[in-house]
Amino acid sequence: MLEILFYNKNIQQIKQIEKDELAQAIENPENLVWIDMEFQADSWPSQEIIDILQNILKIHPLNIEDCVISKQNPKIEQFQEYLFAIAYGIELYEEKIILDEIDLAVGKNFVLTYRHSPIKEIEALKKAFQSKINNMHKSPSMLFHAIIDHLVDNYQFVIDNFDLKIDRTGGSLFKDPSSTQVTVDLNNIKELLSEIRSIVVLEEGMFLNASKGFYSILKED
């Protein structure tokens, strides 16, 4: 899936454009272009998509590999022409927590989001972007921060519901201390909490530096 949203500061208009219009749109500094990609994890997309990433957006091959390969650690790196970040959305689905990796590149007039599955926060943000809500269409920096804010805002909801699951599992253990299934459930919870903790610890430093203007591309506002 490839969707490209385009905003021109002069005509104050947002519209969806085709991939063959992308190169020209990127060349105009008065434009903000959001390129949203969704492709299967651990499987290289078509050469056409690789060409967009490498030749139009000028993304380094190692960062393209970061996009393709799943289960990467959160990180943020600044290059001369763009900033690259890996972050995670946390979803609650049928009492299971799902970690959704999202890779972002922020250039002088574009934002790339590359993901392996639907992420509801991104879909909601695209609608908000098209409606010019919260001025996220005004600059790559504002759009980047809006994406991160929406991802993190969902963390607390998931954690609160996860606490309820822990309480229920603990109640089951109290009723039947010898239950093998309860022991398995507790071990699964422990492993998942450890994974979430490692992600949140890394992201905390990343987002703090980003909010303080540590990265030059995010200082343009």
Write up what this structure looks like.
It is a single chain. The chain is an alpha+beta fold and 221 residues long. The protein has a single domain, classed as CorA soluble domain-like (Beta Polymerase, domain 2, 2-Layer Sandwich). It has 6 helices and 7 strands, in the order ββαβααββββααα.
Number of helices: 6
Helix and strand content put the structural class at alpha+beta
Helix content: 40-55%
Average of the residue pLDDT scores: 86
The H/E string reads EEHEHHEEEEHHH
SS strand fraction: 15-25%
Domain count, please report it. 1
- How many angstroms does the end-to-end distance come to? 30 Å
What is the CATH homologous superfamily assignment?
Answer: CorA soluble domain-like
- The overall strand count is 7
CATH topology: Beta Polymerase, domain 2
Shape descriptor reads: elongated
Q: Strand count, sense and closure of the main sheet?
A: 7 strands, mixed
* Residue windows where pLDDT falls under 50 for at least 5 positions: none
Radius of gyration, in angstroms, nearest whole number:
20 Å
